[in-house]
Amino acid sequence: MVDLCIRLFVDTALLMLIWMTQLIVYPSFTYLKSDAVSKWHPLYTKRISVLVAPLMLFQLFYVAFQLFVAPSYYQAGSLFIVVLTFLITFVKAVPKHAAVETNPNQAKSIFQQLVAINWQRTFLYSALFVWTVFELYLKLTS
Fold it and tell me: What pTM was estimated for this model as a whole?
């Protein structure tokens, strides 16, 4: 039971961060002029990484640990989803953030692309959260 509560906490934190990023942060960057983007974006990426990186890494290692200790379809599916979020983050999103740094004049279109990419992560984190809530419900009612 404790393991699912820990998972629910981490899944909820990442869910809230991804939806905030999707609905507020990325769209707000499209309103900034290129000189403001070139000043603020590097600060943003460093600051958000301090929050997101530990949560993502903890989630990855915790889900992998859970799969090792108590294999189940839930654990295997969770690990698959978490790995997908990592792939999307590091193969698609991080290079776009790097492109903002090198091309602040094109930041508006890059952030529109980031919003599109981020919908994939938003869907995955939302699905993982719902699945964790469902697993917790099943455990509480059995």
Answer: 0.90
pLDDT in tens, 20-33: 999 999 888 888 88
- What lies within 8 Å, CB to CB, of 48 at 6+ separation is 21, 25
Short-list 23, 17, 25, 15, CA closest to 123:
15
SS3 track for the chain = CHHHHHHHHHHHHHHHHHHHHHHHHHHHHCCCCHHHHHHHHHHHHHHHHHHHHHHHHHHHHHHHHHHHHCCCHHHHHHHHHHHHHHHHHHHHHHHHHHHHHHCHHHHHHHHHHHHHHHHHHHHHHHHHHHHHHHHHHHHHHC
The domain segmentation of the chain, as residue ranges, is: 2-141
The two three-digit tokens of residue 49, written as one number: 């990484």
Rounded Cα distance, 133 and 130, in Å: 5
